[in-house]
Amino acid sequence: MTTSITVLVVDNEPGFAELAGEMLEREQESIVSVPATSADEALEVFDGREIDCIVSDYEMPERSGIELLERIRSIDPELPFILFTGRGSEDVASEAIAAGVTQYLQKGTGGEQYTLLANQISNAVSQYRTEIELRENKRRYERTLATLHETTRNLMRAGTKTEIYRETVETAAKILDVAVAAAYVFDPNEGVLEHVSSAETGRELVDATSTFERGDGRVWDAFSAGESVYYDDLRGADGVTTESYCRSELIEPLGSHGVLVAGAEDGDGFDETMTELVHILGANTEAALDRAEREELVREHDRTLAQQNEELTRLNHINEVIREINQGVTRASTRAEIERTVCERLADTERYRFAWIADSESEPPEPAEWAGIEAAYVDRIRSDGERAPETNLVGETLELEEVRVVGNVLEADGWDRRRTEALTYGYQTVLAVPLVDDERRYGVLLVHVSGVDSIAESEREVFAELGETIGHAIRMVERTRAMLTDSRLEIELECHDSRLLFNRLSSIAGERITLEGLIDRGETVVAFVGAPSATELAELEDQRASIETTSVVSEGDHRSLHEVTITSSPLLSVLRTYDARLRAATADGGTSTLVLELPQGVEARSVIEAIEAAHPETELVARRETTSTQTVGRLDTQLEDLLTGKQFEALQAAHYSGFFEWPRESTGEDIADALEISSPTYHYHLRAAERTLVSLVFDSDTK
Question: For residue 222, which of 101, 228, 229, 555 is within the disulfide window of CB 3.0 to 4.6 Å?
Fold first, then answer.
């Protein structure tokens, strides 16, 4: 379709303007004429509508064609203006040219003059429109470049990648005047392109939740190839990324970061200039994303370094505190002194608000020692009992035997009843540390810290080691105290559990069996068992994985002595944990009677519960305090300290196997075979032990 040309024809002769206009319209269909009979009327028409060209007579009343030309040139210096006059002279032509006339044509009598005039009009308007379009394109290009420069500055100032993507799509929509511009970011963890930002004109065209997986459509193909792709007509194509009425699409990869997608409603909607602008925008965006990524890495590195420095400073301070605690614990002579030292030293630091130790032997666990807090707070914990949130925390810590942390007591479940105290005393994090030694549990250390989630992993590890150190120290002072006192607690238990080794032995024997003694050799335990003479225990080696060897040490008319090497036993593990001694054991009819001696400071309830956990069918029969003199009662302890391990083992084996009976129930050779050593070696160790024992007894009596 040809674009119409509106021509304003100005002539003061009545009817000539209409006639000239009709002739021009006949010459070219694109011409639409508008008549005017004076310069003033022509100016009114010019002000009221779009005029592409003016054809004016020269001589007119009030204002000539030259004067009209000068007035038009003051408004539009480039508008085509043809002077069509019957008065032709060089003076008029010179004046018209000087005023900026486009063409000068003298009226004639034939029709060919209108053909010439129509061609002049068409050529002049075409040139005029071309120049206007060129100027507009130049201005648009300059505005676009200015926008790109401004965008580049904004991109380089953007603080996050999200801001960069948003600035990019908004700029693309502004300078390209497209239906949609969208950006997709590559997620390397998921391996997909995810929608991150879009700028739309008109309807909503892009799904904000859309993604492109590996090999999924044109966008992924362009991204994986790393080259921009232009589709000039998407009608009927597969994998279209925008709505169907966006017929053309330009996909610009942004390096490894993602892609920029622009869609136009028209087919072939991107010319060479627009495509080049998208390339420039894409390159600037990629550079900005690279810069943002580097800065983010630098910021992350700085944050990590600052955090590490902070943690290192804190860890150094903690280690200093721990060293002081260890020194105090080492000098302490009682459990209470150890616990008090720990609490006071922790509460004396700026980092920890206060500390206290929950005694695991009480039910429910309650504060035994504390520092840095008023007694009213301790009384509140005690009065709350099972409802106290600390009770659940202590129970969980003891059950798992690992450090537990409540990151924020103001939001944690069950801690609402401590909100007032937390705000009053300025803590939000609670650290619970189990005090353990091997399998022995002595309680829980609770440390209250200001701030939310303020305990780092390294600090947890340090406190875990501190808990083990405290547990070991408590066990050592209790063992030392037990060695220095004559008072011992003795408990008698009955166990009906068929899994207990003694009950199994009695079932095989069919009669009562007795434990004559135990020799703990570290990895194994040698038990000397008295049983009826006809009893055969060799089958136990194949039936029980915990039985390594069995052998007969001595045989009598009615009873025999057996040596049983045990590799593992739940009962023996409990005895080792609590430093308890099995003083006597008998088993008959599937029931064993066990007599245990417990050292000072060990709660009988803990030992009984530990045995019940291994052998549920166990019950307490008797509990009694025993007192012995230093000369007799502690002779075994002194002797164990004076003898080597081999010597003490040789003496024990001789005693339990009836070597000192008359007549002897076993020989040195029998015992040596049971201990898997040579006879001369056994006799050497036994003689040395006997000499030490005799010296200990007689030297003590002479003092």
Answer: 229
Q: Angle at the Cα of 11 (from 31 to 26), degrees rounded to 5?
A: 25
Instruction: Give pLDDT tens digits for 630-652.
Output: 444 456 666 666 778 777 887 88
Q: Which residues contact 217 (CB under 8 A, 6 or more apart)?
A: 238, 239, 241
Read off the tokens for 41: 């009327």
Residue 575 tokens, joined: 């005895």
Whether the pTM exceeds 0.90: the reply is no
pLDDT of residue 204: 52
Question: Would you call 641 helix, strand, or coil by DSSP?
Answer: helix
E strand segments, 143-209: 180-187, 192-200
Residues 550, 538 contacting (CB under 8 angstroms): yes
| All residues at 6 or more sequence positions from 465 whose CB lies less than 8 Å from its CB, including other chains | 322
Q: How far apart are CA 286 and CA 292, in angstroms?
A: 10
Dihedral of the alpha carbons of 304, 305, 309, 312, in degrees to the nearest 10:
60
What lies within 8 Å, CB to CB, of 520 at 6+ separation is 572, 576
Tokens representing residue 281 in the block: 């925008």
CA separation for the pair 657, 54 (Å, rounded): 139
The 8 Å CB, 24+ separation contacts for 83-90 are: 83/56, 83/58, 84/11, 84/20, 84/55, 84/56, 84/57, 84/117, 85/57, 85/58, 85/59, 86/57, 86/58, 87/58, 87/59
pLDDT over 70 for what percent of the chain? 90
* pLDDT score for 558: 73
Please compute the mean of the pLDDT values over residues 116-142 and round it to a whole number: 87
Find the radius of gyration of the CA atoms of the chain: 52
Domains of the chain: 5-133 (3.40.50.2300), 160-295 (3.30.450.40), 348-480 (3.30.450.40), 485-627 (no CATH), 628-703 (1.10.10)
Extract the tokens encoding 12.
Answer: 């003061």
User: Tens digits of per-residue pLDDT, 517-567?
Assistant: 888 776 788 888 888 877 777 666 666 667 778 878 777 767 788 888 887
Arithmetic mean of pLDDT, 233-245:
55
Q: Is the peptide bond before 365 cis (omega within 30 degrees of 0)?
A: no
| pLDDT top residue among 79 and 239 | 79
Question: In 3D, which of 313, 187, 308, 199 has the Cα closest to residue 257?
Answer: 187
Q: What is the pLDDT of residue 170?
A: 81
